[in-house]
């Protein structure tokens, strides 16, 4: 396992993050965490809303300082309480204290805003996050599932007001879900943010179970009846490339996600150590350019406006003059 810096910080994070939402029990959790650590992994991702995930993780971590614990807040702690959810200060403080108790620790390495709350001013969220960082209860902050313009505005405010900025974004990303390539990924690369990619196997669709002879295996929960023609085309392309390269479909799907940008760190949703070992094999797999094109041609994707429009205009002499094609970009 190699390491990259977390956003515009000096924190070293491993190439693959470990998601703990789907770990079945504490015994298996301990095995998975130990195997992940033995491979060099150090980021453990959970959330306040992932059932018993935080408590389970807190019960099995023996070498606390060797790991980067990442958890999230926003989602409701009490469905009947209007202030038990959202990104306002009250929910942030109470959610953080709950997570600290469950995780049996006195600080969180990476604290993610779980989803954008349109009712809370981003100024309030950023100031409240900065307060818990200054208090030593949180070391770094990030945001999940939010528009690019909100994230850019939040970090501009943080820069102007000397608050702790977001160092990373967490988004869904896989061969079937490439929406982040329109705005979020270019923004993250421009601002130097780490991209934690959840569902890199598209909820199991790209893991090889779709066209397996015996159907979905083990704890995979792929509803075959709900699959679209696009889903099946992507799964078939991934399996074909895997067979040619002597890899598994899951490894190919993860390798594709990692090939798109050095900023991307896939979050592996793991159920058992065998699945972890298979996913870790993606670290040794480099997809040839031809295979990347083959995978992407199997499923239609368009950037849309304004990205495609700008790309078409860029070489135009009408837009940028006769020397448009003679300018070398950064």
TrEMBL record:
Translocase among keywords: no
Keywords: Oxidoreductase
One MF annotation (Gene Ontology) recorded for this entry: oxidoreductase activity
Domain NADP-dependent oxidoreductase, first and last residues per copy: 16-299
Alphabetical list of CDD domains matching this protein: AKR_AKR9A_9B (cd19080)
Pfam families per the UniProt record, alphabetical: Aldo_ket_red
Gene Ontology CC annotation, any one: cytosol
InterPro entries: AKR (IPR020471), AKR_Detox_Biosynth (IPR050523), NAD(P)_OxRdtase_dom_sf (IPR036812), NADP_OxRdtase_dom (IPR023210)
Coiled-coil region(s): none
Protein name: Aldo/keto reductase
Record lineage: Bacteria, Bacillati, Actinomycetota, Actinomycetes, Frankiales
């Amino acid at each position: 396992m190699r390491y990259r810096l977390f956003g515009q910080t000096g924190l070293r994070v491993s190439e693959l993050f470990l998601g703990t939402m789907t770990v079945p029990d504490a015994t298996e959790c301990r095995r998975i965490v130990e195997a992940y650590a033995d491979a060099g992994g150090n980021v453990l991702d959970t959330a306040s809303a992932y059932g018993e995930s935080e408590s389970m993780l807190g019960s099995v971590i023996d070498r606390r300082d060797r790991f980067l614990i990442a958890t999230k807040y926003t989602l409701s702690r009490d469905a009947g309480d209007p202030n038990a959810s959202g990104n306002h200060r009250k929910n942030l403080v109470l959610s953080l204290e709950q997570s600290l108790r469950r995780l049996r620790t006195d600080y969180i390495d990476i604290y993610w805003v779980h989803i954008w709350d349109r009712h809370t001013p981003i100024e309030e969220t950023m100031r409240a996050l900065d307060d818990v960082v200054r208090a030593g209860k949180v070391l770094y902050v990030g945001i999940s599932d939010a528009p690019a313009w909100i994230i850019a505005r939040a970090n501009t405010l943080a820069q102007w007001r000397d608050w702790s900025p977001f160092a990373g974004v967490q988004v869904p990303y896989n061969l079937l879900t490439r929406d982040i390539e329109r705005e979020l990924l270019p923004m993250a690369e421009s601002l130097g943010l780490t991209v934690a990619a959840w569902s890199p196997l598209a909820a199991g669709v790209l893991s090889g179970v779709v066209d397996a002879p015996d159907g979905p295996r083990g704890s995979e929960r792929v509803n075959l009846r709900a699959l679209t023609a696009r889903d099946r085309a992507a799964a078939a392309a991934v399996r074909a490339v895997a067979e040619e390269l002597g890899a598994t479909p899951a490894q190919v799907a993860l390798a594709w996600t990692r090939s798109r940008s050095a900023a991307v760190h896939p979050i592996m949703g793991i159920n058992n150590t065998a699945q972890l070992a298979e996913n870790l094999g993606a670290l040794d797999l480099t997809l040839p350019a031809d295979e990347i094109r083959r995978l992407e041609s199997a499923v239609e994707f368009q950037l849309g406006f304004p990205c495609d429009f700008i790309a078409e205009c860029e070489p135009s002499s009408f837009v940028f003059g006769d020397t448009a094609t003679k300018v070398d970009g950064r």
